[in-house]
Design goal:
The protein is mostly beta strands. It has a single domain, classed as Jelly Rolls, CATH 2.60.120.10. Helices cover 4% and strands 48% of the residues. It is globular. It starts with 10 loop residues before the first strand and ends in a 32-residue tail after the last helix. Belongs to the pirin family.
Length: 321
Amino acid sequence: MSNLDRQATPSVCGGRGFVVAEPVRELLTPRRVQLGESTEVRRLLPNLGRRMVGAWAFVDHYGPDDIADEPGMQVPPHPHMGLQTVSWLHDGEVLHRDSLGSLQTIRPRELGLMTSGRAISHSEESPKPHARFLHGAQLWVALPDSDRHVEPHFQHHTDLPTVTAPGLTATVILGDLDGVTSPGKAYTPIVGADLALAAGAEARLPLEPDFEYAVLSMSGEAEVDGVPVLPGSMLYLGCGRTELPLRATSEAGLMLLGGEPFEEEIVMWWNFVGRSQEEIEEARHDWMEGPRFGEVKGYDGGRLPAPALPPVALKPRGRVR
């Protein structure tokens, strides 16, 4: 999914200097962003209070939206570099096309994982016809310097492993959780998991003390380490935890995001993750003028133009709280 903000601002992220090295409970509120003509998202990362969680650098939560009489998601072809996109649905379908020739409908609890590497472009849209409701999350993972120029590729996994406890099913989307590993290709120590809690469930989820974590609420009423987390909000948890207490008043859906604090400093602007002003300028030029990002075939519409670069210099810095 694209960052469609026409006033795109740079995000300076990364570095261990601002990682909270102990357990905390920091509730992040979203910023509402219009995505295309008919989809509004709640943006949790980057946030004024927190730029990254491990290598997770971008989190949008959308829906549930009733799109029975609407076109639904319509995101024109747009570029990415230096990151992975993770598409995750609770309701509806998203049709993915990319410049590699991939054409894939992603359905609830299926992993759509696109690794941009040096350059890729893609589009996302609700199929015709489509389900009544659309509800999901779109996330980006920053690639480390050693892998950020890999050849682009797309993965689609329908059978993901789970970790279970009474009243809890955790589907491992990316990385590792409690000894269970996702088939999705990860480039840093990371975890992404979908947590389904039954009404009245109380559970403790094992964590890695060297990871930092956050929990995104997708639906229902739940408490994370004693903190009520409403749908569309995210609780940052810091590091130093060996387990996470969870409690659900109703059926609830959460997403656990975590990983080793991302050591490198990055520049994230529009749909690009780079390391310098020059890289971002070159990527923007190549999208507007050159063949680097390829062509998305089959989308009914034009490409998404890049916004103007900001007047201030883009500099990589450490994490900002």
